[in-house]
From TrEMBL:
Alphabetized UniProt keyword annotations: Oxidoreductase
Family label: Belongs to the short-chain dehydrogenases/reductases (SDR) family.
Designated name of the protein: NAD(P)-binding protein
GO molecular function annotations of the record: oxidoreductase activity, acting on NAD(P)H, oxygen as acceptor; oxidoreductase activity, acting on the CH-OH group of donors, NAD or NADP as acceptor
């Protein structure tokens, strides 16, 4: 494997957006990828078979468990000798109005969905800070590392969609994690870049099927349903190509820490 084979850890690759990112990393970026999800779907298993165990290490585990994340970091380093990038894509929708959310549900949801990002980032950072892949599209100098972290955010992070309160709060917090982490890595001069990306409307069959959608705002629900019914959802490969491109090639360091739409024209060069 050439030196230009980025070593990436990707969470939530068993389906949806994460599965598309995995395929693109393997087919377009010559990457070696560790995946982390609770289940192992046929699609994920087929991808492992297609590219082989030299290219994909599929770990089954829950990102809400700090030890599972630390274990994924260790196994990746043991197998390939380092880590160049992370894609934190695992996410779970939650539909409850704030006046009705079961109080006992809140700590678990916030804890798992927010803390999991730091559970993976913290043990991976020492390796990301040593990553020295060439980064053709970024202006970082050669003395710094070129480690990259991509957080999958959501448009909901800056909106007040009815019944999406906990989900939005966690995504807003992830944008905040991106800002702070970028500032901390900038202060220590590591060269590690971090970007929070809004993937747009991809697929939400589960959401449309769930009875909880009744608690949404009728207009907001109708907007999603119309996009679905009329085939106006994005293909996962569209935002997926930007996520894969950012983590495999290195993102623009002048935008490190920012929350960006996948279709932002400053990210045009990453689309495939
Ligand atoms: N779809 C959209 O339109 C949209 C819009 C904005 C933002 N997003 C964000 O994009 C990301 C991917 O969304 P998606 O639509 O592709 O979701 P999805 O189809 O529900 O897939 C979610 C992935 O995350 C994994 N996952 C969930 N909880 C996990 C846990 N505790 N531990 C390990 N893995 C876990 C799932 O695998 P297992 O179930 O096997 O664990 C699955 O691979 C999420 O962060 C979502 O919030 C999506
Ligand atoms: C989000 O929280 C829910 C509820 O606790 C949990 O089932 C799910 O695994 C969490 N997802 C992630 C990505 O942390």
């Amino acid at each position: 494997m050439s030196a230009l084979s980025p070593i990436i850890i990707l969470t939530g690759a068993s389906r949806g957006l994460g599965l598309a990112v995995l395929s693109l990393l393997l087919s377009h970026h010559n990457a070696r990828v560790t995946t982390l999800s609770r289940s192992s779907t046929t699609e994920l298993q087929n991808t492992v078979k297609q590219y082989g165990e030299d290219r994909v290490l599929a770990i089954q585990g829950d990102v809400g468990d700090a030890e599972v994340n630390a274990g994924a970091v260790k196994q990746t380093v043991d197998k390939w000798g380092g880590i160049d990038g992370l894609v934190l894509n695992a996410g779970t929708m939650s539909i409850f109005r704030l006046d009705a959310v079961p109080l006992e549900y809140i700590p678990g949801y916030i804890e798992t969905n927010l803390s999991s990002s730091i559970y993976l980032i913290q043990p991976a950072l020492p390796y990301l800070r040593k990553s020295t892949l060439p980064s053709p599209l970024s202006s970082s100098t050669t003395s710094k590392s070129t480690g990259r972290i991509v957080l999958v955010s959501s448009g909901a992070s800056s909106k007040g969609y009815v019944a999406w309160g906990l989900y939005s709060a966690v995504k807003a917090a992830l944008n905040s994690v991106a800002r702070t982490l970028a500032a901390e890595e900038n202060l220590n001069g590591s060269g590690v870049g971090v970007w929070a990306i809004r993937p747009g409307l991809v697929d939400m069959q589960d959401l449309l099927r769930s009875s909880g959608a009744e608690s949404m705002h009728p207009n907001e629900f109708a907007r999603l349903k119309t996009a679905y019914d009329e085939g106006n959802l994005l293909r996962p490969e569209q935002p997926g190509s930007v996520l894969a491109g950012l983590v495999a090639r290195g993102g623009p360091m002048d935008l490190s820490g920012e929350y960006l739409n996948w279709a932002d024209e400053r990210l045009l060069a990453y689309r495939t």
